[in-house]
Predict the structure of NADPH-dependent FMN reductase.
Amino acid sequence: MMTSRAVIYACSHRRGGNSDRAAQWLAAGVREAGGQADILYVRDHEVRPCLACGYCDEPGGRRGRDLCVLGPGDAAWDLFEPLLTARAVLFASPIYFYHLPSMFKTWIDRSQQFWAARAEGAPWLTELPRRTARAVFLAGRPRGDKLFEGATVTLKYFLHNFAMPLDEPLAFRGVDEPDDLTGRTEREAITGLGRHAWEEAS
């Protein structure tokens, strides 16, 4: 069941940096459009790495925390659940070595359980309504033709499990120091993305 809220994932390891600011601006845009948004800071959730144990590949109609052998023991499901219920889904992430931060990627790796459930035809997953996800990527590096390519592809196929196509990410280069993302142009672009996401979802 869809809620009347948006969820924004702040994916940086660093507290109070540019990704956190971008997440707050996305939330401000959602509010401007008349919605409500929850910001989830991935770094505040303990997520253990996938064991590649095959537990989630075994048929049996499991759901929720029982999908994964690690499910009851960490906070991965607390992060996954809003992907099943939020009306709008957005991400604000730095780019580390041409890719997503390790804590965020560890959580994504745990989504193998949803790939397995979708392959099994679990209706609670296969019948999710189509929602378009949005992302803001922030890279300290000022150059690189494929700087955002790896992160975009990974996020795209992660979200496929939740019937959620990924819109072209809003990407910024040369954003490294904690106060580098302060320009009015950047703020308006990010706030506008949050506003557009909620307007389309309503």
User: Anything to note?
Assistant: The mean pLDDT is 94. Residues 49 and 106 are 6 Å apart (CA to CA). Residues 184-201 form the longest helix (18 residues). The chain is about 40% helix and 15% strand.
